[in-house]
Design brief:
By secondary structure, the protein is of the alpha+beta class. 32% of the residues lie in helices and 21% in strands. It is globular and about 35 Å long. It contains three helices and four strands, in the order ααββαββ. The chain has one domain (2-91). Helix 2 packs antiparallel against helix 3 (46-60). The protein starts with a helix and ends in an 11-residue tail after the last strand.
Length: 102
C-alpha cells in the first residue's frame, strides 16, 4: 500500500491535484482567527483537508517551480468559501530564483 501511495504522489503535480478535486466540492475557509489575528484559521471538511494535504505533498515534489498559490479572489477561488480573506502561497526551498523575495 505504501508503494502505491508513493508512486501516485511521485507523479502528482499541484495542477493535477487541483484538477482532481475541482469537481469534489472542496471549500476551504482561510482567515485570521477572530480573537487571535496573528493566527490563521484553516477550516474545512474531510475532503478539504485531504485536498490541502495532497497539494502540500505535490508542491514538495514539484519539478516545475518552487512556488504555487491559490486565492479566494483569484486563481483557485473555487476552492474557497466566500468568507475567506487570505489564500495560500506554497514556496519550496531551495528557491528556483534565489534573488526573488517572497
Amino acid at each position: 500500500m505504501f508503494f502505491q501511495y508513493h508512486q501516485a504522489m511521485k507523479s502528482a503535480t499541484v495542477d493535477k491535484v487541483c484538477a482532481k478535486y475541482a469537481d469534489k466540492g472542496v471549500k476551504i475557509t482561510m482567515k485570521p482567527l477572530h480573537d487571535h489575528p496573528e493566527m490563521l484559521l484553516i477550516e474545512g471538511d474531510e475532503i478539504a483537508f485531504e485536498f490541502l494535504g495532497k497539494l502540500f505533498l505535490a508542491q514538495a515534489k514539484a519539478i516545475n517551480g518552487c512556488g504555487f498559490s491559490i486565492e479566494p479572489h483569484g486563481p483557485g477561488s473555487a476552492f474557497f468559501r466566500k468568507r475567506s480573506t487570505v489564500g495560500i502561497y506554497l514556496h519550496r526551498l531551495p528557491c528556483d530564483e534565489p534573488r526573488r523575495r517572497v
